[in-house]
Design a protein that fits this description.
- By secondary structure, the protein is α+β, with helices and mostly antiparallel strands.
- Helix content is about 20%, strand content about 15%.
- The protein is built from 15 helices and 21 strands.
- It has a six-stranded mixed sheet with strand order 16-20-15-19-17-18.
Length: about 575
């Protein structure tokens, strides 16, 4: 699972005056991009945050290879480096294909490409990939994605290579170019997981444990020249990398200089003005602010330097369906009918920043989205229908609840959205008392059944663009965790849905799986286990000299491996 903090999530139509150039970027004809002549220059990266909480591939929680990490670490598979929905597909990276499954998707085999090398010229072998994965199990290196702990046969109690150098038996390397994974249940999504940075190779003789992140060994197009954590990073070319052995990354700039710790308003102002080095700049963690949005209609030149993406994300109202009053289906239906999604979207920044949700899956092809609305309430809610259902449920005079929200608005689940929900429910006879929870403890509080609020404004984004990591953590009854870290806050446990999940996990064709996930979304939402509020996408600004800057539906940010400043 993942909980993602978008700076400002944005949805809207593609801006006028842009056209799709080679490689999928939004460029005008006057700035056509040629991947064969894009090498050179220095790309500036202006960010609020560091490249990650840690720069060790075992400790980075990223899928698709991340962004800066994807310039340093190649993985067995990676994301397709294209705009929009095409960028939400899996592509081979270190491997020759996206994986060879057995009949029930419990065994996955990969073969490495020829000519792979680390930055020092040492050949990359399957054993380096296996060792890199095993490091992620070490208690000394926390923070990475947890899936392999559960998916690999007999790996739940593995303590990592520092304590158990024998490694994980479920990962086999029969020769230098072959690696085989044995899973304890079917997982058709394994090629998506193999994009995670835990699948990056690490040379055992260069491993320095917790200090490895100070200078991790590159397998990608760039290597670290200098790194001041939280402040700056400079990347230069890895001379042992070439496009001949990496068909995914263009690696156009000769040098990448990243500056961290900047205020979002400062980042957008520098990109808007675009003077000096800022003309060669992008950001990978800051969306357009209100000032920039207000300029787009009157400033066509600025509008040309904005691209749209759709990182799949859903905001919703959660509640425990096993406890009163939400154990009554009619109450849950009433809460769906009563919501005024127009006011909620306005609270989230307006129709250019969010769009209303009646499904749990966002409007992304790869997720399996199917349009439906089982509780049609129009743009502004249907308080009369809600009152009728409440009366039928035994609440003719309405009811009162407490709604928790984050103490700040930066993540779109704060006071503004909560107040809009409160106002809408008041019209249906539902009195809402707001409960503000500090942002630093919000997720921990909401995801622990012992402290879970009666109702809460929440958001969810998937670790990779498939319906599985969107549906399973939230609605698989077997994923319920009583001790904390539970994201099935509805306490939802439907035998048919659980069985459907198991069947879909056997499917290795992403298109077939997507269709089934859309059907499961429909099955779930008929039961009204939550109230979907809105989905979000992104609009990103880039510097005047930047070419081939586009946003994919996997990352929601610019792909630094594709942009050019020459």
């Amino acid at each position: 699972m993942t909980w993602r903090r978008p700076s400002l999530l944005v949805a809207g139509v593609l801006l006028a005056g842009t056209a799709t150039a080679c490689g999928g970027g939004s460029q005008t004809a006057a700035t056509a991009f040629d991947p064969n002549s894009c090498q050179g220059g220095t790309l500036e990266v202006l960010n609020q945050d560091d490249a990650g909480s840690h720069l060790d591939p075992a400790r980075l929680y990223t899928s698709g290879g991340g962004n800066i990490p994807s310039l340093l670490f190649r993985t067995l598979t990676t994301r397709t480096r294209k705009a929009g929905a095409d960028g939400a597909k899996v592509a081979p990276d270190l491997a020759t294909n996206t994986g060879e499954p057995n009949a029930d998707a419990t065994v996955w085999t990969y073969h490495l490409r020829d000519g792979l090398k680390f930055e020092d010229g040492t050949p990359i072998a399957a054993a380096d990939v296996k060792y890199g994965i095993e490091r992620g199990f070490a208690a000394e290196l926390p923070g990475g994605a947890p899936y392999l702990h559960d998916w690999l046969v007999g790996a739940q109690n593995y303590a990592g290579p520092y304590k158990d150098p024998n490694g994980i038996a479920a990962i086999e390397t029969p020769d230098a170019k072959t690696i085989v994974f044995h899973l304890n249940s079917p997982h058709g999504d394994f090629p998506y997981l193999a994009t995670a940075t835990q699948f990056a190779p690490v040379p055992k003789d260069k491993d320095k444990g917790a200090d490895y992140e100070k200078h991790p060994v590159s397998s990608g197009p760039y290597q670290i020249e200098s790194y001041d954590k939280g402040k700056s990073m400079v990347l230069v070319r890895n001379t042992n990398w070439s496009r001949a052995i990496d068909p995914n990354r263009l690696a156009c700039p000769d040098r990448i200089e990243a500056t961290y710790g900047l205020d979002p308003a400062v980042i957008n102002q520098r990109l808007t003005t675009g003077t000096g080095k800022d003309a060669d700049a992008v950001t990978t963690d800051t969306d357009l602010g209100p000032s920039e949005l207000a300029q787009l209609d009157s400033n066509p030149e600025l509008a040309k330097r904005v691209a749209k993406g759709g990182f799949p994300y859903t905001y919703y109202i959660s509640f425990d369906t096993t406890k009163a009053p939400f154990d009554n289906p009619k109450v849950r239906q009433a809460f769906n009918y009563a919501i005024d999604r127009t006011s909620v979207v306005n609270a989230a920044g307006g129709s250019s920043l969010a769009y209303p949700a009646t499904t749990f899956l966002p409007n992304n092809k790869n997720m399996g989205y199917q349009p439906f609305d089982f509780f049609p309430a129009g743009a502004n809610g249907d308080p009369a229908k809600a009152k009728q259902l409440l009366a039928e449920a035994g609440f003719p005079n309405g009811l009162s609840i407490t709604l928790a929200h984050r103490s700040q608005d930066f993540n779109q689940d704060g006071p503004k959205v909560a107040t809009a929900v409160q106002d809408a429910y008041q019209k249906a006879g539902i009195t809402v008392k707001l409960q503000s929870i500090d942002s630093s403890t919000y997720i921990t509080t909401v995801s622990n059944p012992a402290t879970q609020p009666q109702a809460a404004v929440q958001g969810w984004g998937a670790d990779w663009p498939s319906g599985g990591p969107f549906i399973v953590p939230i609605f698989d009854g077997r994923q319920y965790l009583a001790g904390g870290g539970n994201f099935n806050t509805a306490h939802f446990n439907d035998a048919k849905v659980n069985a459907d999940i198991d069947e879909i996990n056997k499917i290795t064709d992403p298109d077939q799986a997507a269709k089934r996930w859309g059907q499961v979304d429909s099955e779930i939402m008929k039961q009204a286990p939550l109230v979907p509020l809105f989905h979000t996408t992104q609009l990103r600004l880039y510097g005047k000299n930047v070419k081939n800057a586009f946003v994919s539906d996997w990352t929601g940010v610019y792909d630094l491996s594709q942009v050019s400043v020459k």
